[in-house]
Amino acid sequence: xxxxxxxxxxxxxxxxxxxEVVFGLPGVQIMEALDAIYRQGKxxxxxxxxxxxxxxxxxxYARTTGKIGVALVVPGPGALNATAALGxxxxxxxxxxxxxxxxxxxxxxxxxxxxHEVADQSQVFQPLTKWCHCxxxxxxxxxxxxxxxxxxxxxxxxxxxxxxxxxVMQASAPVEMPAPERASPTPVxxxxxxxxxxxxxxxxxxxxxxxxxxxxxxxxxxxxxxAQRLNAPVITTPEGKGAIPxxxxxxxxxxxxxxxxxxxxxxxxxxxxxxxSRLYFRGxxxxxxxxxxxxIQIDIDAAEVGRNHPVQLGIVGDARAVLQALAEAxxxxxxxxxxxxxxxxxxxxxAELEEVAPLQLSLVRMIRAELAEDAILVPGVxxxxxxxxxxxxxxxxRTYLTSxxxxxxxxxxxxxxxxxxxxxxxxxxxxxxxxxxxxxxxELATAVQEGLNVVNIVFVDGAxxxxxxxxxxxxxxxxxxxxxxxxxxARLAEAFGAxxxxxxxxxxxxxxxxxxxxxxRPTVIEVPLPTLSTPF
Length: 536
Fold this sequence. Notes:
It contains 22 helices and 19 strands. The chain has 536 residues and is of the alpha/beta class.
């Protein structure tokens, strides 16, 4: 055993568990941890300008690399600032560790008014995390870090929160450093696999519905193999984009708020294989499941199986392991789907999008044309991004990041920064609205300081566009609170030391993006838009 301070035990344990980067914002209760990071030299520290950004960057890093993203903040206001991003990680089943400082252990629960005190702070995080814990002694830290990591690496990979009191950071004790624990994968039960294989083999028009769990499990290859064995078309959720290459002959595209291939494909399906999705249809679905249709649902979380729709067969397990076993159990393809049928569905989807959102569709096509196959796109909560869920083809997994049902305004730019940290050689582009970009605009300073040449496309309509459109449609044009006064985003980017490009017309986006991708510094492209209709 070695004599260590709590801060040394914390940072050494993180490094021992394979953590490479910590995002955070300095503050008094965590200064010992920063000093330990400096002295040990094993972790990269990245300072941000807001704690929410620290957790978003950890989210983007984790989502694109498959590694655990770590954020370190002070208690109270720092920890509370991080909650929106932690909620995003929870909604998307992403392994993010938030390490929060704490008031002194002798002040816990006393409500004396200690600096940054929040009574029962861990209670705030219980609905946002898979597990949270406050340590009480130095010797406890390595084991608790290992337990946190085990929670992040097993089962459904939702975030965890760990609190370390200030005096525990400073105190010293003999510490035993356990080896990282790698849980063995849960064996796949053969009986449900065989039952699923029989159902699917007998199907004439099977359809696969793929969600974010396929991406989180790194099961894209296995899903594609099952689709090919069945000759079954694949529909993805926005979170599941990349579960099958977007240009694969069996890829139909994405369902989102009533748009996409589902309304043409699902009514024809006799067996629907749902993988890694809660199967919840936001907005009014333009079809209903028929009683004779059979649903097979695969999910690592037993609570999700049958939550939103009755299933014929539920299989609880890791998507990759289950799909691998299913592929081995399936006979050769026997479905009746013909290539021309799938082509007609894709043509119908495209025709509908061209009719209802022609400008957005053209912008999405411009963006896709300029990006490499492995480029990472982070579509924010903004109009063009909504339509991008439907129109942007994703060719590789972990290259398209949404905030899922949490729909967190302002998440795109900081998430893209974290993605760039984890993928420095890849192109990384964020799509922001003028409302959302203002949430994290100061992180242009972080991008410049850390050399993160992310391209942030800001679509400017001078409004919180979706809510303005809602007021125009449903509230008799009574406009309140949705008009925005904006800065000149391109000039503001230049003031930070980034590059700013201000367009006169949306049609100029392709050339501007091409130029921005050739820069060796962050770039903001300002694109003027009218208020546009949304998919919802």
